[in-house]
């Protein structure tokens, strides 16, 4: 299977999506739950990853409807996996050794050593914290009325998307010691998220989130990057930068933070971004976008949820859209789904919570932070 995966990846990278999909499909030797066997379990995980690769390749081919169906099929397979795992544990809960083997196969912890190392214990502790709530603000009254009945929205969909291929493998889950957000790689060992994810209120009694905040301790932060269901690659945050050193003034347009990591996660690239942002997201023009983040309303945010094709509108530095986000998705990257810069170029950050009453949420355009991002990347390159 490894040879087939390598061939499919090469076909995909050269833009031969049809051949890549065919190769991934041919590599499948089973589509049913394996028995309790380490190597069969490993093979099953690889095949599940292939299913998610096929789904994204269909989107790259320009067939989002087929991609949606493929993602849904893969999600059903994933749900069956966990349902079978739970049934197995109920039936054999007295056999501790079998339970440990089972978790190694189906939870992605493929060596017992990983389960016992200090970083893994920290990860399990961090997973008990709650996602950071998304701030909610009033929608701009200048927002075009036609947007609420957008025809673009009819093609949008929302799916669970295991990260197995770029750009989703550049997206991670930020643990700040008190809650969770989303962060994405934008350069080697550099990621970006929301300022409200790495700061805390100065006035603890304030009822609103949009107040001045001070920076939190980066030593208590890490970013977890998943690949399918295998053990995550966890990277420590060694520092971060906001518009005001490490503090935040509470404004929507300054709700960004650049994270400096102790290393780049293994085997991953990063999202692109444009220093000249004028062509990436035209002002006052309806555009289709995608947002992928660890929304807590599905699977408690353990997997990436992707909103694809929802309509968006830019009003200078602020973006409004109809993607249905939830706490935990703060800091998720906003990417285009059409045009030259689609899928792989960051055009904004998600930061405003979805409001059911108006079915809108929002974010900030990259022009809010692109100059700081450029300085950070140039500074990192100069020291390496």
């Amino acid at each position: 299977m490894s040879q087939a995966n390598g061939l499919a990846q090469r076909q995909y990278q050269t833009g031969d999506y049809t051949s890549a999909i065919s190769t991934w499909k041919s590599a499948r030797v089973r589509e049913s739950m394996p028995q309790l066997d380490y190597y069969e379990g490993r093979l099953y995980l690889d095949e599940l990853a292939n299913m998610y690769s096929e789904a994204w390749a269909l989107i790259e081919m320009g067939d989002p409807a087929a991609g949606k169906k493929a993602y849904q099929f893969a999600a059903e397979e994933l749900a069956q996996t966990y349902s079978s795992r739970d049934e197995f544990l109920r039936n054999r809960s007295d056999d501790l050794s079998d339970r440990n083997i089972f978790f190694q196969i189906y939870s992605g912890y493929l060596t017992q050593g990983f389960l016992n190392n200090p970083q893994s214990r920290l990860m399990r502790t961090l997973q008990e914290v709650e996602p950071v709530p998304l701030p909610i603000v009033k929608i701009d009254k200048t927002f075009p009325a036609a947007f609420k009945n957008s025809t673009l929205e009819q093609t949008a969909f929302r799916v669970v998307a295991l990260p197995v291929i770029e750009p989703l493998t550049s997206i991670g889950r930020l643990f700040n010691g008190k809650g969770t957000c989303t962060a994405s790689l934008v350069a080697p060992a550099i990621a970006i998220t929301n300022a409200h994810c790495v700061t805390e209120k100065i006035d603890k009694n304030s009822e609103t989130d949009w107040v001045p905040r001070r920076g939190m301790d980066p030593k208590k932060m890490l970013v977890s990057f998943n690949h399918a269901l295998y053990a995550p690659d966890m990277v420590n945050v060694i520092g971060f930068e906001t518009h005001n050193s490490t503090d935040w003034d509470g404004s929507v347009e300054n709700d960004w933070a650049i994270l400096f990591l102790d290393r780049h996660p293994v085997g991953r690239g990063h999202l692109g971004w444009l220093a000249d942002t004028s062509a990436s997201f035209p002002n006052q023009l309806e555009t289709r976008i995608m947002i992928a983040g660890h929304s807590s309303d599905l699977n408690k945010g353990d997997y990436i949820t992707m909103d694809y094709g929802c309509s968006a509108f830019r009003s200078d530095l602020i973006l409004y859209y109809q993607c249905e986000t939830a706490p935990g998705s703060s800091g998720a990257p906003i990417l285009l789904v059409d045009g030259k810069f689609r899928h792989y170029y960051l055009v904004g950050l998600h930061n405003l919570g979805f409001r059911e009453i108006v079915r809108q949420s929002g974010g900030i355009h990259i022009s809010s932070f692109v100059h700081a991002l450029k300085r950070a990347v140039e500074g990192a390159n100069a020291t390496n």
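The domain at 145-383 is CATH 2.40.10.120 (Thrombin, subunit H). Residues 30-39, 93-129, 134-153 have pLDDT under 50 and may be disordered.
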